[in-house]
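Section 3.1: Structural characterization of target chains.
Under the original work plan, the team committed to producing a structural model for every single-chain target entering the pipeline before any wet-lab resources were allocated. The record below documents one such target. The sequence was received from the expression subgroup and is listed exactly as submitted; it comprises 223 residues.
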Amino acid sequence: MINIIDRIVILIFSPILLLLILLITVFKIIFDGLPVFYSSTRFSSINKPFVSIKFRSMINNITFIESEIKKYNKGGFESIPLSSSVYTRFGRFLERTQLVELPQLFNCFRGDLSLVGCRPLPKKNLKELEKKFGHKLIEIRGLRKGGLAGTAQLFDKGKLTSSQRLEIEITEVLFFLHAPIYKQLFIYFSVLIGVLIFIIFNKVPLKFKSFIMKNLEKYKILT
């Protein structure tokens, strides 16, 4: 059901989304040059790979990029601050507004991702999380398809510890696996609205976050 909703939402907003992608592509070529896009293998679970497509937001220096990733790895989750010189000037804007993720709408339409779910990760990150928190929790995290936007983003995921983020993500997964469809749809659109609020204002009202988590946590007992 959620997969169908993903496609309907994308189709409804496709004229605006396609225009945005076209404009960003032009600006990327003007300010950053080529390549415009960045593709990499990502995993919703350790055994579910797909090719993720994003706008390139970083400089063309793989050695420096890898050193920054290693530097800011938080126990399996990566969060390179926007102040890092690894980003281009235009790339920093794309990261701050999350427009960097727009090409992943293609992944959503293909069924690789959902619009709402845990962010997919490189396999080595999942292995690192598995080593730190155990196989069961990572297995639960991977029971549902990864997403373009997730509940952890409402809490500014870069500021969360790896255990805090994983707990939020697993709670979200259990909710979407077991809640009635009408509740799933309500939280699905609430998360999308919340992420949009975060993008615009760089924070989400505490009451809004608390409301979503109270709904999700009713299904946490299923662990």
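The chain has a mean pLDDT of 93.
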